[in-house]
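quick one
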Amino acid sequence: AKEYGRNCYRFYSEELTSLAADRLSLERDLRGALARGEIFPVYQPQIEFGTGRVTGAEALMRWRHPKRGLVLPADFIPIAEDSGLILSLGEYILRESCRQARQWHDRHGFDAVVAVNVSAVQFRQNDFTDAVSRVLAETGLLPERLELEVTESVVMQGVESAVQKMRVLDDSGIKIAIDDFGTGYSSLSYLRNFAVDRLKIDLSFVRDIPHHTDANAIVGAIVTMGRGLGSRVIAEGVETEAQAQFLQSVQCDEGQGYLYAKPMNATDFEAWLKTSNSG
Ligand code: C2E
Ligand code: CA
Ligand code: CA
Ligand code: CA
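structure w/ calcium ion:
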């Protein structure tokens, strides 16, 4: 039994060591990734159900690693958050998205919002709102064309200062979306403290409609509440026509997902925009 225990321990610790080593090597690579031009946003359109109009483009971060290939956020955002690297990565994605949206506006009359994910680590910075205004000034994007996607955990951390920052952003005309809505453990009372422009229904609910009555009920309730609060409601992860039909039947405003388009690099998104405008 003693022998067995020791082997077990050794196996466990070797596995841990290799995981930790992998994480360390990713973190080391991530440190130089921005300077080497390996980080970039891809864009996924957001579509109004009734009209098919493009109402927004969500920017999603990607990392083209020289050896590992394309690395998805789930594998590097947590490392970026723990190490503080998310501050520079996040600001880069914000600036690049605003620059791009301004360019699409000038070239193609793109007047939808560009939606940028904001980490709790970024939002917590005292100068966060200043950093955002600086980027808008530098890129010439109108505040109304920028939407910041924050999760409920962001709103709940140090409620006082979070609400204060939300108000500053809201007053400047920037839009606020609550991401992954319904998956956090927060109270809903924060919704009374500032204007939320959009509620985003998490794909974990969308995945299960229209065949699971629980998911249907939750999605219906989120839409009713969102509309009652004057927010638009958007569903993420819409993959099937049946999901889109259910969402439309409960008056969800917009959808985003593979049914419409996968996230695309800037060049492909621009080409997609042209075909969807003329279609
Ligand atoms: P999220 O903000 O909830 O984004 C939705 C995720 O669903 C994205 O994954 C998107 O590519 C994926 N998706 C889109 N349509 C579909 C669909 O029809 N079906 C399915 N199954 N998935 C779909 P992605 O790009 O891997 O991003 C994962 C998460 O990483 C995001 O979740 C967000 O929390 C975070 N993230 C991405 N970009 C950034 C960023 O620039 N900054 C920060 N702080 N977080 C980011
Ligand atoms: Ca998001
Ligand atoms: Ca507003
Ligand atoms: Ca989500």
